[in-house]
Amino acid sequence: MSGMDNSLQSLIWKGDRLDLLDQRLLPEEILYLPLTTPEEVWEAISHLKVRGAPAIGIAAAYGVVLGSRDAATKEAWLAAVTKQAEYLATSRPTAVNLFWALDRMKAAASTIAGNESDLERCKSALETEAVTIQSEDEATNKTIGEHALTLFKDGMGVLTHCNAGGLATAKYGTALAPFYLAQEQGMKLKVFADETRPVLQGARLTAFELQQAGVDVTLICDNMAGHVMSKGMVDAVIVGTDRVAANGDVANKIGTYSVAVLAKAHGIPFYVACPLSTIDLETPTGEQIPIEERVAEEITEGFGKRTAPRDIKVYNPAFDVTPHEYVTAIITEKGIVHAPYEENLRKLFHE
Ligand code: MRU
């Protein structure tokens, strides 16, 4: 079978627990972790068992449900929602979808509390909000994919970095959505997946999910991107993002900036795909986006093999910022946005 019909879901809500696909183990092992507490959700986000901007937002929303369900009064329930949302917000700093989802859960709880006197009905309405965040993400990504596909033509080579696919979202992904839709429509695209050092989201996740779906995907090391571009094998680049600033600067997995510079040098369009929930108009430019730094071991002994001298100094930023000048277009569920981003991103929220 090909296509997304038998794709793995990153998050499955079971009513009393969250079954979370442990992405650290992919592609070798498929294991769902039954999470029942916000602490377990926090740990899963922080340790990249679930990762990708929309997916961590969805996981955190369920974390709030899990952390507030035992409250005995409405006041205690509201207090628990706020407390757990604040706690889960400390799990990772860069992807704004995390804070967006938690803010949405807090706002929903306060509206529900205003309209509903029965505590059990309050809890159930908040659970519905989390489920809705997940189902909306799936629909949004499909629309993003449809818009993105209009930029591609049969036979094109398209390079992507990190994993902005079904695994990083509820389904379809953002940057990978057009590949699935192209395949459904019989359009042939040749995808190049950067392996994405140091955690290898490209090799372990993008190559895996595209291969599973029968998409034509070729894995390359990050340092081969310039070479494949210079050989004329790449007609476009498409990536996801963790946060877009108001001026169109884009934070995404470390290495994205280098790909954008290479694309510009080769006259290749550089596209960014994301839902509106990833656009942060409160952050004026990329300079204000908090960039997560992760442990040195990801570089010195990733996947259990020591590959660097002991006690070596290490710098391990998990994300970088691509200045908006390098971004050809941002593809959202509301359509394709071009420069000037400052003006055109803002318009999206008022249409
Ligand atoms: O550290 P990760 O794996 O969470 O980084 C993920 C990315 O950089 C993705 O490209 C981004 O979150 C977009 S996912 C649709």
From TrEMBL:
One Pfam family per UniProt: IF-2B
EC number per UniProt: 5.3.1.23
A single GO molecular function term of this UniProt record: S-methyl-5-thioribose-1-phosphate isomerase activity
Pathway(s) it belongs to: Amino-acid biosynthesis; L-methionine biosynthesis via salvage pathway; L-methionine from S-methyl-5-thio-alpha-D-ribose 1-phosphate: step 1/6
Reactions the enzyme catalyzes: 5-(methylsulfanyl)-alpha-D-ribose 1-phosphate = 5-(methylsulfanyl)-D-ribulose 1-phosphate
Group of enzyme by EC: isomerase
Site features described as Transition state stabilizer, chain residue numbers: C162
Active site positions, chain numbering: D242 (proton donor)
NCBIfam families (UniProt xref): eIF-2B_rel, PRK05720.1, salvage_mtnA
Protein name: Methylthioribose-1-phosphate isomerase
Organism: Paenibacillus chungangensis
Gene: mtnA
